[in-house]
C-alpha cells in the first residue's frame, strides 16, 4: 500500500532555488562589472602618471643638456627655440621621429621645447646708458615638456621657468 498525500508537489523548492541562483548570478555579474570598471580607472591613472613623469623627465633632460653643453648663450637669442627629443636610448636635438619612443615598450613619446622668455633686472643693479655700462639680470628660459601616450589618447604638457643670473651689456638694453 502506498501512502496518500494530501498536498500534491508543486515544485516550490525548485522555484526557490532558481530564484536564489538568479540573485547570486546578478550579484556576481555586478561584482564583475565593478571590478572591470575599477581596473579601467587604475589603468587610466597609471597611464596619466606615466605621461606626467615623461613630461617632467623631458624638462629635466633639456635643462641638464643646456647646462652641460653651455648652450645657454644660444637660448638667450630672442625668438630662438631649442627642441630636444627624449628617447629610450638618450636625448637628441631636434623633434622626435614617428618611431621614436620614450620607453622601451613604445608607449610614450616625450619632447622638450626651450625658449628665451626675456630678462628681469635685479633689484639694486645699476643701469648705465654710457658705453660699457652693464645691468645685472635674471635671464628667463621657459622649458615646455610634452609627452603623449597615443594608445590611450593622453597628452601632458608642463612648463617650467629657469632663471640664469648674468650681466646684460648696456648697449643691448631696450
UniProtKB/TrEMBL annotation:
Residues 10-59 form the Type 4 fimbrial biogenesis protein PilX N-terminal domain. The chain crosses the membrane at residues 12-32. The keyword Transmembrane helix applies. Keywords: Membrane, Transmembrane, Transmembrane helix. It holds the Pfam family PilX_N. This is Tfp pilus assembly protein PilX.
Amino acid at each position: 500500500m502506498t501512502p496518500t498525500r494530501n498536498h500534491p508537489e508543486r515544485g516550490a523548492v525548485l522555484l526557490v532555488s532558481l530564484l536564489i541562483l538568479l540573485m547570486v548570478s546578478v550579484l556576481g555579474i555586478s561584482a564583475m562589472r565593478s571590478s572591470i570598471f575599477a581596473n579601467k580607472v587604475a589603468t587610466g591613472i597609471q597611464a596619466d602618471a606615466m605621461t606626467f613623469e615623461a613630461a617632467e623627465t623631458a624638462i629635466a633632460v633639456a635643462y641638464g643638456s643646456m647646462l652641460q653643453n653651455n648652450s645657454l648663450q644660444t637660448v638667450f637669442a630672442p625668438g630662438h627655440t631649442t627642441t630636444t627629443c627624449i628617447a629610450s636610448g638618450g636625448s637628441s636635438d631636434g623633434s622626435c621621429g614617428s618611431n621614436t619612443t620614450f620607453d622601451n615598450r613604445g608607449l610614450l613619446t616625450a619632447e622638450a621645447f626651450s625658449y628665451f622668455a626675456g630678462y628681469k633686472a635685479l633689484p639694486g643693479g645699476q643701469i648705465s646708458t654710457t658705453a660699457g655700462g652693464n645691468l645685472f639680470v635674471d635671464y628667463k628660459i621657459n622649458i615646455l615638456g610634452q609627452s603623449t601616450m597615443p594608445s590611450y589618447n593622453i597628452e601632458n604638457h608642463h612648463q617650467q621657468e629657469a632663471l640664469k643670473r648674468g650681466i646684460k651689456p648696456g648697449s643691448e638694453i631696450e
